[in-house]
Amino acid sequence: MNKIPLLFVFALLPFAVDADAGKKPLRVVFIAAEGEYEPDKTLPILQKYLESKLDVVSTRVFAKSKSDLPGLEALDNCDVAVLFTRRIELKGDQLDRLKKYCTAGKPLVGIRTASHAIQTWLDLDKEVLGGNYKNHYKDGPLTDIKFTAAGKDHPILKGVAPYKSRGSLYRNTGLAKDVTILLEGSIPEASEPIAWTRMYRGGRIFYTSLGHQKDFEEENFLKMMSNAIVWAAGR
Predict the structure, then answer these.
(1) In terms of CATH architecture, what is 25-134+194-232?
(2) What is the C-alpha to C-alpha distance for residues 196 and 183, in angstroms, rounded to an integer?
(3) pLDDT digit string, tens, across residues 47-71
């Protein structure tokens, strides 16, 4: 009987392990709070879209008030967290738990107001997301979305086409030097980065300043966010 070389067997082992891990459901925590862009209503749209495409176990962690975000224990066992809150005033154990997750090199996807998600921890923007939020331009002009050279072949934008967003353009120039900008948005008087990736302490980070209510009616936005969640989780 022919013997299989031991070196060949060892070469196969990593592939067997990865294939088995890929069969596990993707565990996603959606974190939202009531606010200007109604993430408590729009994130369920993304959740439903993601669950229609992939084997996903989703958990909703939705704020009960500006200072109460119960259920953050779900972060302890998730593959990726999706953050869409605005200036919530977390304190104590809840703030500590969210900080611990975000600063431990864990996968994180931030949407729009995630750049100023937590009023009691505004450093999240620069420290973790690599952003530099400086308010936004006036409402009204549609934001014309364009791929950057780095974005054209990135898996997050696979199957995604540019469109025009109704959301006001965020001022975000002066990003961290280690971000990779995937999308730029422009209005008649300005152009700004509107989507980027970053590696932070070994964890994959994705942020976009898109996230207006109307964006969640756009197939291309939902596809991008779905891709971003999968990419951040390393799938």
Answers:
(1) 3-Layer(aba) Sandwich (3.40)
(2) 7
(3) 999 999 999 999 999 999 999 999 9
